[in-house]
Amino acid sequence: MKSIPALAHANIQSFRRLAFEAGVPRRLPPGAIKPFVPAIRKWFRASNDANISVLDDGYFTRHDDFNVPVEMTQMQDEEEGGQTSGEACSHFHRGEMSMAQFVATAATQADAKNRLYIAQCPVSNLPSMLQHDLPSPDLVREAGRGDIYDSSIWLGMAPTYTPLHKDPNPNLFVQLAGRKSMRIFEPAFGRAVFEEAQRRSGGRAAAAFRGEEMMQGSERQIMEALVWGDDDAKVAQQTYTVELETGEGLFIPKGWWHSIKGMGEGINGSVNWWFR
Length: 276
Prior knowledge:
The chain is α+β, with helices and mostly antiparallel strands. The protein contains nine helices and 15 strands. Strands 2-13-10-15-8-7-5-6 form an eight-stranded antiparallel β-sheet, sandwiched between helices.
């Protein structure tokens, strides 16, 4: 597997030349984003275990009168030879709930088999005060044409999962709380991995959409095993890996394939900007 290097500097010129125009993924240097994203310090606080983040329910109580799109996933253990061999999704459903309800549920969620995730909630749908906590970085506004296609938050209790897909626009991804691990592929090889998973499962998922068929059943199992299982030497050799901690950022170029997992315990939050 291959690691993704970090830019030495976070100035516009370096980012534009070495990442955006070069069309290659790059980590942002330490400290490049965290001071400029108020949500990192306002939305979360440390739990009794200082290494685990939780939502600051006191802050959200003042800004929770709105609805968010949620994914509800029920997991079950799989057994082989009388022993637990892994997990499989037994039920997946998309819906909507109030942010107040989500905050209350996240505060009490103790069963890792029942997972609740705010997935791809547009920042523009948030109350204005919460939008102000997520200002578009200078890198997004100035590296290209200044055209911000969209921006979304991703929020839930770890573990979380996003299947292999590609984005139609360059993507700046920032970790707000917790830790995420990514597997990333160059465009041509990523397409081959995606098509092989579709061939094995008999699926017809769209590469640019988070379809329900990619989140459950055999299609999820086959895709996840191929991308994350490390059993296929050819796939492993072409895999770029990166782990993002709170306050760290990653540039993902247009057309590069990626799958994402929220790791560890506690709340896991991210924001991204698609731009040109």
